[in-house]
């Protein structure tokens, strides 16, 4: 009888310990979800405020840029006309460094440089407006593996030109989510570009997918040098970049698109061991 009572008591204790561990894990998961939701809400509020404050300013900047670009085009046409006149009037003087032809050529190069800078500013402004503005999504049934396959087929020539080989490791399961396919493609394309830039000497870009109900997990892995721990805290901040000429909006835009789909993005990186961006999206039951 005593052994039965002891076994019962031990069973109760073990069951209680297991239940406590499970409840602790559940509480941790709930706390993490709550923290992610609060952080997401703060970012959304900041973006909404930023969009409101800068929308009008961006419009005021875009108009002068358009005027500058139009006048540069007119000026280039005028210089080209003068160049042809100079060539026709004195063909024997076209070789000298200070000949009219060379002078007009120098003017054209300067106009081209300014035009390129205007185009760069316009594109930067458009990127900012896409990032800070209201995002309109058109969600529909989306098969993730098909989307990734199409995107990798599109991106593979560009990757190969940089010495990067794409390796696919997609799940054999059908992975369905409700999403705006074009927006998701943009998010993953940004990750592909970021991975390629992390491998200037070439390497492998590994894309994998898996079903982990109630979620889908997609990993974009590069074999580059990894990301310094100090930079990992800033990498999703708008306009933060370590690359000359980078806008610093690619990764923040990817995160925003993914969060608009009720998902999130995780970063795992070690110096010298590459980087893994894992995108987690809700799995839709067929």
- How many helices? The count is 6
Category by helix and strand content: alpha+beta
Strand content: 15-25%
Give the C-alpha Rg.
28 Å
Number of distinct beta strands: 7
What's the architecture of the largest domain, going by CATH? 2-Layer Sandwich
Query: What series of H and E elements makes up the topology?
Result: HHEHEEHEEHHEE
Could you tell me how far the N terminus lies from the C terminus, measured between alpha carbons in angstroms? 54 Å
Main features:
286 residues; two-stranded antiparallel sheet; 2 domains; Heat Shock Protein 90; alpha+beta
Characterization of this structure:
With 286 residues, the protein is an alpha+beta fold. The chain folds into 2 domains: 1-134; 140-282, Heat Shock Protein 90, CATH 3.30.565.10. It contains 6 helices and 7 strands, in the order H-H-E-H-E-E-H-E-E-H-H-E-E. It has helices spanning 2-89, 100-132, 144-161, 181-197, 229-232, 250-260; strands at residues 140-143, 164-169, 176-179, 203-212, 215-222, 264-269, 275-282. The strands form 2 sheets. It has a 5-stranded mixed sheet, covered by helices on one side. A two-stranded antiparallel ribbon has the order 1-3. A hairpin with a 2-residue loop joins strand 4 (203-212) and strand 5 (215-222). The longest helix is centred in the first third of the chain and has 88 residues, at 2-89. It is elongated. The protein starts with a helix and ends with a strand. The model has no long low-confidence stretch (mean pLDDT 82).
